[in-house]
Amino acid sequence: MKSPTKMPKQELAGSLADFLCFAVYSTNLAFGRAYKQLFEELGITYPQYATLIALNEAGDQTVGELGDKLFLESSTLTPLLKRLEAAGYVTRRRDAEDERQVRVSLTPEGKAVFEKAFCGREAIIEATGLDPDTFVRLQRDLITLRDNLLASSNK
To answer: What would the mean pLDDT of 34-58 be, rounded to a whole number?
Structure first.
């Protein structure tokens, strides 16, 4: 990991808008607003959408594996999964080999909702106003930032 360039404190954070963490936080809120209409039509939330993506990506998974991918604790993920199960979008069942594990899978209805939401993704990408190269570079940079912060917090 590179050492950050030292900047005088007044240049780093003269106002709220100068905080990188606030820029990321407020951008997350803006994404929520951009997705709002699509998710209301489908009756899902962004965390539920992310869960559907993860389940579509790798099929049958344990709650622990899913939590690791989504950066969610099981105390947050379990109620979310219960709501998705009640809606008919996922199934949860005990692992036959290790009953301590709960496995989660998409149902055909869950796959259909995922596909509808995924099709709406193009409008969100367009709404960013970023050209494809900038979009990919920003996404890569944010992943690097997240991974560096996680590594730093685990020291």
So the answer is: 93
How many DSSP H helices and E strands does the chain contain?
8, 3
Cα separation, 64 vs 49, in Å, equals 18
| For residues 115-121, average pLDDT | 90
In tens, the pLDDT along 54-101 reads 999 988 999 999 999 999 998 999 999 999 999 999 999 998 888 889
pTM more than 0.90: no
* Nearest partner of 89 among 124, 120, 117, 119, judged by Cα: 117
81-84 contacts: CB < 8 A, separation 24 or more? Answer: 81/51, 83/48, 84/48, 84/51, 84/52, 84/110
Q: Please provide residue 120's backbone torsions phi and psi, each rounded to the nearest 5 degrees.
A: -75, -10
CA distance 21 to 19: 5
- In the block, tokens 């998974």 appear at 61
Handedness of CA 100, 102, 103, 107 (dihedral sign): positive
Distance, in Å, from the CA atom of 107 to the CA atom of 58, rounded to the nearest integer, reads 13
